[in-house]
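## Example record

The block below lists the input lines for one assembly entry, exactly as stored, with component labels intact.
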Amino acid sequence: MGATPDVDVIDALIKQRVDEIFSQKLEAKLAELKASKTPSMTIIATKGTLDWAYPPFILASTASALGWDVSIFFTFYGLQLLKKDLSDLKISPLGNPGMPMKMPFGPDWFKGINWNIPNAVQAVIPGFESFATTLMKQTISNNGVAGVEELRAACVEGGVNLIGCQMTVDLFGFTHDDFIPEVKEYCGAAHFLPMAKDADVTLFV
Amino acid sequence: MEFDKELDASGLGCPLPILKSKKSLSDMASGQVLKIVATDPGSVKDMQAFCKQTGNELLSSVEDNKTYFFFVRKK
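Predicted structure tokens for the full assembly:
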């Protein structure tokens, strides 16, 4: 009569060994997958002003330079950023207390003044937005910041997928002809959400 | 340091130094070195992250009187 192996002990040893091997393999496999996966980002662009044109185009062009797969879904006022002519984009200091109102010209002491113009005054001066937009464009240029057109072109060149929201195209009475031909897709939320689900980064701007 | 191509990104703000670096590198052969000159202080961290993400090698990153010099070897 030989000694009967204790089944419970053997089972426990097997389980312990398998768990060890599995943990090692899993870690190595996950690291391998992470290293080989191309990062991806989806952005929802909802604003149609000069200032808010920057975040989606800066992030998307930079991500494409890093080799990421990027898609931007333009919806509501964000559709303005797909128009053929971007020179109409304006900035509004009205109701925007976070926006410094400084002059982009003159001596340093003058440029340093923050013109605290009350909303009630801004609202009644005709052309105030155009005036503020001109000053902002000058400030952008003075600081070596890229123009929106340049950043959008960098996105197109970098292969960023530009997607228009069909519902808001119809809602605002636009046609596809209003937008640059690089917009290859027009779709709805059901098409965008699965893309966002699989992306590593999703941003709402 | 020896280099094969130079990019002057002086006076340009984020993200232009990175976008232009990427463009310059795409015209170069593997192993060649790109020298980049920039004045954007944010470009120091950005260039590190860019190289790490893209696999290009950041050989050197130095500052001299608010001007930044980067040497990048293409992957």
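DSSP finds eight helices and five strands in chain A. Chain A has two domains: 1-37, 39-204.
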